[in-house]
Amino acid sequence: MSETSLRHTAAGQTNPPWLDWALERPGRSHFVHANGARLHFLSWNFEAADKPTLLFVHGFRGHAHWWDFIAPFFSADFRVIALDLSGMGDSAHREQYESATLARDVVAVAELLGPAPIIAIGHSYGGSRVLRACAERPELFARLLIIDSYVIFEGEPPPQEPPRIRGDREYPDQASALARFRLLPTQPDSLPCLVRHVAEHSLCWTRTGVRWKFDSNLPPGGARETDGGQMLGRVTCPVDYLCGEASVVVSAERARRIVDALPRGNGPIVIPSGHHHLMFDQPIALISTLRALLASSANA
Question: Where is the AB hydrolase-1 domain (predicted)?
Answer without folding.
Answer: 54-285
